[in-house]
Write a structure and sequence with these properties.
With 425 residues, the chain is α+β, with helices and mostly antiparallel strands. The protein has helices at 15-31, 64-75, 100-106, 138-156, 200-219, 243-246, 255-258, 279-296, 333-343, 348-355, 416-423; strands at 3-10, 38-46, 49-57, 90-96, 122-129, 164-176, 182-194, 230-233, 249-250, 302-309, 318-322, 376-382, 385-389, 394-398, 401-407.
């Protein structure tokens, strides 16, 4: 039976995403000096104010207000008219060290389980589908592309749409056919913050025309749009007041945007501002890695992978899969899960090592989704802490070095052959 499915995305200038980007920028700054940093950093943004709070244990020294302001500047909040800008906003820092009771369950060699344990209990999900080349749900993939293109135009082609401001949202509805495959784009919703116009009606028509002529054709294939596709462009009629002045933002409040747009499932734990000892983040990446490689290997067309942990315990309490009846290997979902358990080591330490999650790679994830991105290698600056010891003194020094680092490693299709071999494909 034909049906509709909708997902949304938000721009890097959305208040919640500002918070995510600040939290991850602080995390990266600490990891660049101390890869063993333990970070749980939460950020609140509102009119003219940023509050950073949480628990951190690190050898790094980081000027947090400088990182906050630079992050806001990169996003594009640089004008006092926004009532929130990088130069004038207040920054309050409220951080303390991590609980030793939690730390002993996570640190290797301590706690009841001597292996590195999970940083918390909970369940995490990974999902993949053949709907798009990036193995993501189509509605979310298109939503991400729309807000990302708006930001790119604002920064790189501002002459095309000079009125754009940083805050924006997009939503796409896909109509599926009787074969459960995407058939067409049913509805597109775009709301973008903009400069004030002399007349609201002129402004609304200009933005509507630009979205249909410039933005949408660049990211959504013409063959999926038709005369019946519905467009809602700035449907409130005006969007001048936005960003943290229009709505307070919090780290971790866009977890569905961050993952699969409502397809599959979500365990509830947010990602940004958390180091990889927190399985909310690392295990969610690991299950996406499994799901993507399994679908790419041809085991099924769609899969949801769930893993669950007990705090302080290294081995997962369960691994479950759901292939939605699309499996092609003559095995039940239970049997598939057993095989995947043999291929992928899901202990927290193994995940961190397999995916390289002690590197400062997380700022790149904090807008436009953590999943469905292309993996790449980039040379970055690190400032590692070195301990210098001689018979007279023991001191710490920092020397800047450049090192190639892999980003979005959980998106790599590096286990396809191993999966094919295990399933006889």
């Amino acid at each position: 039976m034909a049906y509709l499915f909708t997902s949304e995305s938000v721009s890097e200038g959305h208040p919640d995403k500002i918070s995510d980007q600040i939290s991850d920028a602080i995390l990266d700054a600490m990891l660049s000096q101390d890869p063993d940093s333990r970070v749980a950093c939460e950020t609140l943004v509102t009119t003219g104010q940023v509050v950073v709070a949480g628990e951190i244990t690190t050898k790094a020294y980081v000027e947090i207000p400088d990182i906050v302001r630079e992050t806001i500047r990169k996003i594009g909040y640089t004008h006092p008219d926004y009532q929130f800008d990088a130069e004038s906003c207040g920054v309050m820092v409220c951080l303390h060290s991590q609980s030793p009771d939690i730390a002993q369950g996570v640190d290797e060699g301590k706690g009841l389980d001597k292996e590195q344990g999970a940083g918390d209990q909970g369940m995490m999900f990974g999902y993949a589908t053949t709907e798009t080349p990036e193995y993501m749900p189509m509605a979310l993939a298109f939503s991400h592309r729309l807000v990302k293109e708006l930001a790119r135009i604002r920064k790189e082609e501002s002459h095309l749409m000079p009125y754009l401001r940083p805050d924006a949202k997009a939503q796409v509805t896909i109509q599926y056919g009787d074969n459960n495959l995407p058939k067409r784009v049913h509805t597109i919703v775009i709301s973008t913050q903009h400069d004030a116009f002399a007349e609201d009606t002129t402004m609304l028509q200009k933005i509507y025309d630009d979205m249909l002529a410039i933005v949408i054709p660049r990211v959504i294939p013409a063959e999926l749009r038709d005369a019946e596709t519905v467009y809602h462009i700035n449907p409130t009629g005006k969007f001048v007041i936005g960003g943290p002045h229009g709505d307070a933002g919090l780290t971790g409040r866009k977890i569905i945007v961050d993952t699969y747009g409502g397809k599959g499932a979500h365990g509830g734990g947010a990602f940004s501002g958390k180091d990889s000892s927190k399985v909310d983040r690392s295990a969610a990446y690991a299950t996406r890695h499994i799901a993507k490689n399994v679908v790419a290997a041809g085991v099924c067309d769609e899969i949801l992978v769930q893993v669950a942990y007990a705090i302080g315990v290294s081995r997962p309490v369960s691994l479950n899969v759901n292939t939605y009846g699309t499996a092609k290997v003559g095995l039940s979902d239970v049997e598939i899960a057993h095989k995947l358990n043999e291929i992928f080591d899901m202990r927290p330490k193994a995940i961190v090592e397999r995916l390289g999650l002690k590197s400062p790679i997380f700022s790149a994830t904090a807008a436009y989704g953590h999943m469905g991105r292309e993996s790449y290698t980039q040379e970055i600056d690190l400032l590692p802490v070195e301990i210098i010891e001689d018979e007279n003194e023991r001191r710490e020094i920092r020397r800047k070095i450049k090192k190639p680092v892999e980003f979005f490693t959980w998106e790599k299709l590096d286990y396809v052959e191993a999966v094919k071999k295990a399933f006889g494909l």
